[in-house]
Amino acid sequence: MTLKLRLHSLLLGTIASLCLGAPAALADLVNPPETVRVGLDVDSLSLDARLAAETTSYRLDDLLYDGLVRLDENFQPKPALATSWETPDPLTLIFHLREGVKFHNGQPLTADDVVFTYTTMVDPNLNARSRSLYEPIDSVTALDEHTVQFKLKEPYAPLFSYLDLGILPRAAAEGNAEFGSAPIGTGPFRFDSWLRGSQINLVANPDYWGGEPAVKKIEAIVVGNGSARAQAMEAGDLDLIYSPLPPAEVGTLSANAKLSHSVVPSVSFIYVNFNTADPLLADPAMRTALAKLIDQATIVDQIYGGLDQAAASILMPAFPWAYDASVTQPTFDVEAAMAELDALGWKVGADGIRAKDGKQLALTIGTNSEDAERVQSIEYIQNVFTSAGIKTELQAVDYPTFMKGNQGKTYQISFLSWGNLVDPDRAMYGQLHTGGNFNWGSYSNPVVDAALEKGRSESAPEARAAAYKDAATQIAKDLPYYIVAHQRLHAFTSEKLKGFEPDARGFLTDLAAPAK
């Protein structure tokens, strides 16, 4: 199927969906409460939709903003600020905006706001974490007040997966470095207040084009410790929490008859990121040996309590059209790892530490301190590495500091997760393509680059799947990433939220359901 035909089929789906009106919430709440208290594991770094960098920002941005489209539970685009679209040729898309929409400050939405959002999104000066997702866009032009034209540099199959980017008001955001601290969107909820590190408050937007939400206030409470978050849920101080949670707490909460427990496959994974620019980690053979010292089964089954699915590769089961079980990364094998380290010249000395040319093999593994399971995981990896003769230091710091280290490429080995992966492209291109702005490990391989570029340019699912298999096969050999687990999302809700359904991204979409 050509890109033009594919987009034409999407247009037909759009026309058929115009009667939906409001955002595609997964389910309407039954007797929704006035106020909902949501427990979150980390604070937002910025509520500027272009700068979303962690789950909290993505979840709240989804309520504060609207995109041109909204992705449904199957990650298919549905109308939002764009009521319809057309493709005069494979490199041109024209979007027709919903009329009468206003930003939270009362200013009307216009095509110029869409132009501003997307042109700044790809501006390197903004340093948006998701910039690479939009770089195939060549230009965005306002044809009139309610019509926007996108020109592409080349065919770009995943584009519609990313057009849910929240649209910002140009007049309020342009040149405003503090916009992310007091955001303004068109979404079902308005920003109210923010106590950094503690709580973010949202209030229902009475003028929302899709209907005022039945829930009038959302209090997003930051409780970094998973056990404390679970205990607050059980005590009735919170109405909704998501994993990550300590496995023991999941068991306790599941046994509480007053709480509802939902489990959905997530579009996120837990992984080990090697800094391939580090001299000790530049050789794929070294990374392979180290990967064989990562006891995936113990981490997934014991530390994480079997709540997630052990991963074989970067290909995600959440996308069956692109998943291929034949692609596999190395498995835990201490004996083989030690033999490979010996072969690389890293011999165990009298002090029990491996050395080569008079230099000890010393590595640092980092993660964020708020997540107990991540900390336990790197402690366990440290024990295995140490037993294999590797001098290993741990670095567990607060989330913002940890992320700055990743983005600044100052780490050696990092243990973390990646979420909101609504397309295989989002799981790989920005992170593992040469020069990608998520490529914190400085990985580069022309075979992977070519495969990921093909995955973007092909429109047929079969051709895209073949491209991602080729990329994943090479990634499993080079191991810039070692994928520990494909996560499952566990949601607990109080009796106040009967009927709430989480989606695979862990968004709070159902809280925006209008009153019946």
Low-confidence stretches: 1-27
| Strand composition percent | 15-25%
Distance between the termini: 41 Å
- Helix/strand/pairing category: alpha+beta
Radius of gyration, in Å, reads 23 Å
Average pLDDT figure: 91
Helix content: 25-40%
Number of strands: 20
Number of helices: 14
**What's the story with the biggest beta sheet?**
11 strands, mixed
- Shape descriptor reads globular
Brief sketch in words of this structure:
This protein is of the alpha+beta class and 516 residues long. The chain is 28% helix and 23% strand. The two termini are 41 Å apart.
Give a structural overview.
The protein has helices at about 5-15, 55-65, 110-120, 170-175, 225-235, 245-255, 285-290, 295-305, 335-345, 370-385, 400-405, 425-430, 445-455, 460-480, and strands spanning about 35-40, 70, 75-80, 80-90, 90-95, 135-145, 145-150, 190-195, 200-205, 215-220, 240, 260-275, 310, 345-350, 355, 360, 360-370, 390-395, 415-420, 480-495. A hairpin with a 2-residue loop joins β6 and β7 (about 145-150). About 30% of the residues lie in helices and about 25% in strands. α12 packs antiparallel against α13. The strands form 4 sheets. Strands 1, 8, 9, 10, 11, 12, 13, 17, 18, 19 and 20 form an 11-stranded mixed sheet that branches. Residues about 1-25 have low confidence and may be disordered. The protein is an alpha+beta fold. The longest helix is centred in the C-terminal third of the chain and has 18 residues, at about 460-480.
